[in-house]
Each structure stands twice: as structure tokens, then as C-alpha cells.
């Protein structure tokens, strides 16, 4: 963790740790594919760009529409 880098990023995006926690691969469940991804992140850092691309394509890093979330049904 790099607190200075985090604080700088918060200033850029206007938020706090919530986004980082929600998109962090280490905050996902313990399904076999998440466990496998964590293993690769820890042991084979050369494929990190692949995991970022897959994470984005699966929508894990997507921002939620707050109006849609809070809309009453």
C-alpha cells in the first residue's frame, strides 16, 4: 500500500478507498477462478496486464449508476 499515491489518486477522482476496495482482485470471493487469479498475481507478475484486461472486460471495475442503484421500485 502506498498512502501518498492513494491520497493523490483520491484527489484526482474525488473519492476514497471504496473504489479501490470494490475493484481489488483480493476483495473478490473464493471461487476457484478468483483464487487462481490471486495466485498468478502473487507468483507471475508478468501477466498482470492480462488480469487487468479480463477484470475490466468482465465489468468488475465498472462504476455503478448511483441513480439507478437508489431508484425505488
What can you see in these coordinates?
The chain has 73 residues and is mainly α. It has a domain at 25-73. It has five helices and no strands. It has helices spanning 3-13, 17-23, 32-43, 48-57, 66-70. The relative contact order is 0.09. The model has no long low-confidence stretch (mean pLDDT 78).
Give short descriptive properties of this protein.
73 residues; mainly alpha; 0% strand; globular
Q: What is the molecular shape?
A: globular
Number of strands: 0
Strand content: under 5%
The biggest beta sheet is recorded as: none
- Span between N and C termini? 40 Å
Low-confidence stretches: none
| Helical/strand content category | mainly alpha
Number of distinct helices: 5
Topology:
Blueprint: H1 3-13, H2 17-23, H3 32-43, H4 48-57, H5 66-70
Compact summary:
With 73 residues, this protein is an all-alpha fold. 62% of the residues lie in helices and 0% in strands.
Amino acid at each position: 500500500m502506498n498512502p501518498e499515491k492513494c491520497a493523490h489518486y483520491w484527489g484526482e477522482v474525488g473519492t476514497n478507498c471504496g473504489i479501490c476496495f470494490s475493484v481489488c482482485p483480493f476483495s473478490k470471493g473464493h471461487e476457484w477462478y478468483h483464487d487462481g487469479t490471486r495466485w498468478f498475481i502473487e507468483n507471475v507478475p508478468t501477466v498482470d496486464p492480462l488480469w487487468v484486461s479480463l477484470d475490466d472486460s468482465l465489468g468488475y471495475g465498472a462504476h455503478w449508476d448511483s441513480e439507478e442503484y437508489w431508484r425505488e421500485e
